[in-house]
UniProtKB/TrEMBL annotation:
It comes from Bacillus thermotolerans. This is DUF3986 family protein. InterPro entries: DUF3986.
Length: 89
């Protein structure tokens, strides 16, 4: 999978004493953003996933958002929903 190295977005959750961040990378030639979370940085263990994609500098892909242009508000909202669904927050 190839990513557009000129387009990425940092998203975060900073409420209730948490300081959690993820990075969204835009796929090349697709209206799709993949969200990566550095589990180890936060002392968490990722759940084993089939077809897992990881990068040392960004972490493990946790979900994707099918959209042409992702903004901070939507990215952070989806990240918060993912954190809640996985009982991290």
């Amino acid at each position: 999978m190839l990513y557009d190295d000129t387009r990425h977005l940092h998203v975060g959750y900073y409420e209730n004493g948490y300081d959690l961040e993820a990075v969204a990378l835009k796929r090349q030639s697709e209206d799709q953003w993949d969200i990566f979370f550095p589990f180890e940085q936060y002392g968490l263990k990722p759940a084993a996933q089939e077809n897992e994609v990881s990068f040392e500098e960004f972490g493990t892909r946790i979900f994707s958002i099918p959209i042409k242009d992702l903004d901070y508000q939507l990215g952070s909202k989806k990240f918060e929903e993912w954190l809640s669904a996985h009982r991290i927050i």
